Amino acid sequence: MNTELTVLAWGCLLALVHLFAAVRVKTRQYGTKWNVGPRDEEMPPPQPIVGRLARAQANFYETFPVYAAAALTVSLAHLTNRWTAIGAILWIAGRVVYLPLYAMGIPYLRSAAWLASLIGIVLVLRPALMAAFA
Question: Which one-letter DSSP state was computed for residue 31?
Answer without folding.
Answer: -
